[in-house]
Amino acid sequence: MNEIRIFSPATVANVACGFDVLGFCLDHIGDEMVVRKTDKKGVVITKIEGFDLPFEVGKNVAGVSALALIADANPDCGFEIEIYKKIKPGSGIGSSAASAAGCVFAINELLERPYNKMQLTYFAIKGEAIASKCEHADNLAPAIFGGFTLVKSVNPLEILQIPTPHDLFATIIHPQIEIKTSEARAILPKEIPLQLAITQWANMGSLVHGLHSNDYGLISKSLHDVVIEPYRSQLIPYFKEVKMAALNAGALGCGISGSGPSIFSLSKGIKDASNVEVAMNNVYRKTNIKFDTYVCKINTKGIKILNK
Amino acid sequence: MNEIRIFSPATVANVACGFDVLGFCLDHIGDEMVVRKTDKKGVVITKIEGFDLPFEVGKNVAGVSALALIADANPDCGFEIEIYKKIKPGSGIGSSAASAAGCVFAINELLERPYNKMQLTYFAIKGEAIASKCEHADNLAPAIFGGFTLVKSVNPLEILQIPTPHDLFATIIHPQIEIKTSEARAILPKEIPLQLAITQWANMGSLVHGLHSNDYGLISKSLHDVVIEPYRSQLIPYFKEVKMAALNAGALGCGISGSGPSIFSLSKGIKDASNVEVAMNNVYRKTNIKFDTYVCKINTKGIKILNK
Lengths: 308, 308
Fold this sequence. Notes:
By secondary structure, chain A is α+β, with helices and mostly antiparallel strands.
C-alpha cells in the first residue's frame, strides 16, 4: 500500500465535569487527509485546502507528529501529506488534534501498523503541542480511540475507554468568533473552593457510572461544570441563552466544547439532538454573529480509512 | 414478626479520591441490634452494651433515626431497641452510621418493609446528624446498600451503587487515639489548587471505571488522595509509615478511613490483605499506641438479618 485517504474526526474535550481529562469523538465532522509513500525520506506537505496553515513541516501539527513517528520508526521511505481541512482552527472541536492524529494514523497504516493506538497518541501529542503550547491528549485520545475517553495522565500516558451508550447524539454550535487560548487560560482561577471541587468529582464519578450503565437520566444529572464554565462562558456571547434553549429543547446536558467558542449538547436520540440544533440556531440567528451547527452520533471508531 | 436481630456493618467513607462522596461496606465488622415491637407507642432504648452511649432516645443516633421513621410511618405500635455496640465511636469506620442505619432497617422489617433503601437512608441521615453535626450519607449509604456507593447529592438524596470486584478485600487498622471531628474539619483548606482538583477528579473517574471493569491495576492507580490526605494524615501518628508498609506488602491502595484515625487498605485477594495486616501491625506494635486490625471482604449486601 502506497497511499491512504483517511477521515479524521472533530472531538469535544472537557465535557462539563470532565475538565482537562474527558473527551468524546464526533461522527462525519472532520478533516480528510491523503498520505503517500515517497522514495525520498522525510516529510513534505504538498497540499492544504480549506484553511491557511503552514506548509513548513516543523510548524505544522501534522508535520511535527509525522516527524515524531518517523524518528522512532526510521522507515526506508518518506511521506507526502495532503490536508483537506474542514474543521476551522480555533473552533474548539479539536482541529489541531484531527490533523495530528490523522497524520500518524495514516503513516502507521502505510507502515503496516507497527504502533498501537497509545503509541500513536504519544506521537500526536508532539504535534498538538505546537498548536496548544502544552502537551495534552484531551482531543487526541477520542480522535484515535473513538467514543468517550478519559486521559488519566499524560506522563506517563494513560487513556481509558469509557463505554458510549448507543443512543447518544451530539449537537454542536460553532459561533465564528475567536477566543485566544491565552485568554481562555488566563481567565481560570489557580485555586477553587473545595466544595465546588467535591461537586465536580461527584459529577465525574457519576457520569462515568452513567456511561457504563446506559443511564441517560444520570448522564443528564452529571453533565454540570461548576468550576470552569462560570469563567469561560463569559468569553462566549449568548452562552447562557444557548444552554437554556438546548436544555429546554430536551438536551441531556450542554457545555463549552474544549475552551470554546463551540458549545456542545448531548441528547438521547437524533430527534432530541435535532430539536436542540433548532433551538441553538434560534438563539444565534437573532444575532449578527456567523455560526455553524452540526448534529451527529458519537463516533465510537475514531479515525476512519476512506480508501487505500 | 415481633422481634428481629440484625448485624449492622462498619463502613469506610471517602476512599482516597472520593472525599465526601464515596464509601464501601465491610464484612463481619459491625454492631448487632435487637429491635422488638411493643404495645406502647414510641421508642425506648433498653440496653446498650460495648460502649457508653446515651439511653435518651432524642440524643442517641439510633433513637433519632427511629423517631424520624416513626413520624412518617405512624405505626400502631412502639419499639424497644437493644444495641450491642462493637464499633468504637470515633474510630472512623462508621460507628454512628451503623447504629442509625441498623435501627431503621430493623424497624422497617418489623413493619413489613413499607420503605425502600433510599427512604431508609433519608431517615438514618436524621440520626447521623446528631453525631456528626451535619447531614451526610457517606457511611450510611454503603451500610444500607452494601458494596461501593457514591452519594452524588444529599439534598435531594441520590445514591449510586458502583459494582464491587469479587476479589476485593479491605484491611483496617484502628489506632486507639481520638481525633476530634472539629479538628479534622478545621484542618481542611477552604480553597484548593485547580491542578490538584483535576488530578482528584481524573482519579475519581478512573476509579469508578476500574470498579466497573474489574481492573485491579487501574483501581490501584486511582486510589490516590492528593487533596485531603496531606492535611488529615498529620493527625494520625505513623500514617506515612503504615501506608508505605501496606503498599510494600501488596495493597492496591491505602488511605484515611472517614476522617480517621482508622486507616484502610484495599487488596486483591485475602492473601495480600492478610500480608497488609501483618505489615500495618509491624509498624504500630513498635509504638505505645493501642490498636486493632481487621481483614475482611467487601460486603456487597449491607445490613444482614441474623434471626427474626
